């Protein structure tokens, strides 16, 4: 859905409808954040599968993942819309982007907080999960090698 909204964004912007542009920018923002959130959920699943292998029963796991994967980005979008719906719009209407024909976030602060900081937090979490999984795999490999040396002796 992120790709579809991204590819149709310029075409939909050409209709010069402010409401349509706000909707397209909001959907683009939402699906981008949803993609980041699902990437984070994949790293959590990776951690559960490779580090916490046993006794990891989470009741209604898929439902909880879906609520987090689709709900957290929705909360961010709702907050941005509640603060000011004009944060979304067409960049060609501003003097700083006169040739832009794309609906997106117009305020730099909102962009850096709701996209860049969001991505940065997810990147940090994914990095932490990756390092944890690597350490776990390395320790299992070391234990296996030590065990095989013991039995060879």
UniProtKB/TrEMBL annotation:
> Its principal location?
membrane
- Localization per Swiss-Prot or TrEMBL: Membrane
The record lists the membrane-crossing segments as 20-41, 61-83, 110-135
Record's bilayer topology term:
Multi-pass membrane protein
The record's InterPro entries line, in alphabetical order, gives: GPCR_2-like_7TM, GPCR_2_secretin-like
Specify the G-protein coupled receptors family 2 profile domain's residue ranges.
1-153
Q: Which GO terms describe its biological process?
A: adenylate cyclase-activating G protein-coupled receptor signaling pathway; cell surface receptor signaling pathway
Which keywords appear in this protein's UniProt record, sorted alphabetically? Membrane, Transmembrane, Transmembrane helix
Task: Quote the cellular component terms of the Gene Ontology held in the record.
Answer: plasma membrane
Highest taxon of source: Eukaryota
One annotated GO molecular function is: G protein-coupled receptor activity
Protein name, as recorded: AGRG4 protein
- Originating organism: Vidua macroura
Q: Which gene encodes it?
A: Adgrg4
